[in-house]
Amino acid sequence: MKALLDFVPLIIFFYLYKTVDPKDTHHPLLELIGSAGGIDNNNILVATTGLIISMLVVYGALFVMQKFRLEKQQWIVLFMTVIFGGITLMLSDDFYIRLKAALLNLVFAGAFLLSPFVGKERTPLIKRLFGPVLDLTEQGWKNLNYAWAVMFIVMSLLHVFFAFLYAGGKYWGEFTAFGDMIVMFSFIIIQFIILRKHFKSSDE
């Protein structure tokens, strides 16, 4: 249930991005936040407004469901969405919301790369996540940790590619809503296929 809630803001973002007229400066969501809108990017501005509002609602619900706490990555996602989305709306410039996903993936990549060197335990982040289900050597955990870091770097580059380089950003909304999710799920499936012999048994 909680995992499904994470996708609600993305679905709302994509729906507004695809259905709102880019030249509609009088959309109710823009009037709600007192924005005069932009020239031809109002679909992105409206979608960003819907994204921020829906994320505040969803993460508020998750905060209650998770006994009045959010996980670190949830705080990071919420913080960066509100900050970059807010700048986008204040300046009526979609550059910042396009940049957000690329930077967010770099933050996650940095977290994986630095995790073996910081903190009391100095444990690779991936081991903290999958330690209960996978049985790997220390070198195996380090290699898997680097693989995840590389995956997030690739995701960041893909976001830059679709947001700024390919077809003038025409397919940025589609990639943001679905593309990165497909890339991540594909990576996870391939990872589990490769590591299937390292799964711990139920006795362990």
Count of extended strands? 0
The N- to C-terminal Cα distance equals: 28 Å
The chain-level mean pLDDT equals: 91
- Low-confidence region ranges: none
Summarize the structure.
The chain has helices at 2-5, 8-19, 28-32, 42-65, 72-91, 95-114, 125-130, 138-165, 172-194. With 204 residues, the chain is an all-alpha fold.
Verbal overview:
The chain folds into two domains: 1-93, no CATH class; 102-204, no CATH class. It has helices at residues 2-5, 8-19, 28-32, 42-65, 72-91, 95-114, 125-130, 138-165, 172-194. It is an all-alpha fold and 204 residues long. It is elongated. Helices cover 70% and strands 0% of the residues.
Summarize the topology.
Elements: H1 2-5, H2 8-19, H3 28-32, H4 42-65, H5 72-91, H6 95-114, H7 125-130, H8 138-165, H9 172-194
Helix pairs in contact: 2-4, 2-9, 4-5, 5-6, 6-8, 8-9
Key features of this structure:
mainly alpha; 2 domains; 204 residues
